Amino acid sequence: MSVTIRQANVSDIPAIHNLVAELASHLGEADHFTSPIEQLERDFKDGFFQAILAEREGEVAGMALYCFVYSTWKGRMIYLEDFVISKRHRRQGIGQQLWDVLKERGRERNCAILKWQVVAEDEGAMRFYRKQDPVFEDQWLNGKVEL
User: Fold this and answer.
1) Are 50 and 42 in contact (CB under 8 A)?
2) CB-CB contact of 60 with 54 (8 Å)
3) Could you give all domains of the chain from N- to C-terminal order, each with its CATH number?
4) Contact (Cβ atoms closer than 8 angstroms) between residue 118 and residue 126
5) Residue 65, beta-bridge partner list
6) Please, which of 34, 48, 59, 60 could form a disulfide with 43 given CB 3.0 to 4.6 Å?
């Protein structure tokens, strides 16, 4: 079965929303996923994020949701916010295909770094990311405040 990798469009927002909900559930955080689909659609239309989708037999099997950010130390970066392969499509090479296209998107925009966060306890995700030869930053803490 072949996989098609393509850029998402606004009609894909329901599938993207479903994949994010699946990720939240997988991480045991379903109660914390509160973004309504309308917000996702509005922010997509406003250009706050982009997504690459993997399709198999007309069904969205996975996605990489990302945005471009800037580092005064490194320059342009591509930031991977969510990387999800639907449970029934995992371990079939789809993640690597998405990853490779995501890296190419970053190169096309002259990005120096692809950056992401991962929950350390997510063993499947950690196995995948370790294959990408990453540098995990243990000296930096993530901070956030609600606005």
Assistant:
1) no
2) yes
3) 3-130 (3.40.630.30)
4) yes
5) 51, 82
6) 48
